[in-house]
């Protein structure tokens, strides 16, 4: 995303849906399908579709547990114990 104000608005929308920032532009959390659709529509309204992109990746619990982290992938203090328990 090229614009800091747009990036900030998308970050605020993600946090508003209860997601946690795990990296500068990466958020993690649990959304039901309706919430995910709502966030996608909200992000679409916030970005410049000619220059920006937002990826929303759905994971089931089984697939989420298969994610491999290498190095210090995120600040563990920013993530809830519920999410951390799925990784470790």
What does the secondary structure layout of this molecule look like, with pairings?
Layout: H1 4-16, E1 20-23, E2 26-28, H2 33-46, H3 61-64, H4 81-87
Antiparallel strand pairs: 1-2
**Low-confidence region ranges:** none
Biggest beta sheet summary = 2 strands, antiparallel
Shape: globular
Structural class: mainly alpha
- Write down the oligomeric state: single chain
How far apart are the first and last residues' alpha carbons, in Å?
A: 31 Å
Provide the spatial order of strands within the biggest beta sheet.
Answer: 1-2
How many DSSP-defined strands?
A: 2
Q: What is the overall number of helices?
A: 4
- Radius of gyration, in angstroms, nearest whole number: 14 Å
SSE sequence, one letter per element: HEEHHH
> Helicity level, as a percent range?
40-55%
Mean pLDDT: 84
Task: Report strand %.
Answer: 5-15%
Core attributes:
88 residues, globular, mainly alpha
What does this entry show, briefly?
The chain is mostly helical and 88 residues long. Helix content is 43%, strand content 8%.
Please explain how this structure is put together:
This protein is mostly helical and 88 residues long. The protein is built from 4 helices and 2 strands. It has a two-stranded antiparallel ribbon with strand order 1-2. A hairpin with a 2-residue loop joins strand 1 (20-23) and strand 2. Helix 1 runs antiparallel to helix 2 (33-46). It is globular, with a radius of gyration of 14 Å. The N and C termini lie far apart (31 Å). 7% of the residues are buried. The mean pLDDT is 84.
């Amino acid at each position: 995303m090229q614009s800091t104000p747009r990036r900030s608005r998308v970050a605020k929308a993600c946090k508003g849906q209860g997601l946690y920032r795990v990296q500068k532009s990466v958020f993690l959390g649990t959304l039901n399908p309706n919430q995910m659709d709502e966030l996608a529509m909200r992000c679409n309204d916030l970005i410049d579709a000619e220059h920006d992109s937002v990826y929303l990746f759905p994971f089931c619990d089984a697939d989420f547990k298969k994610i491999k982290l290498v190095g210090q992938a995120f600040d563990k203090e920013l993530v809830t114990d519920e999410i951390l328990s799925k990784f470790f």
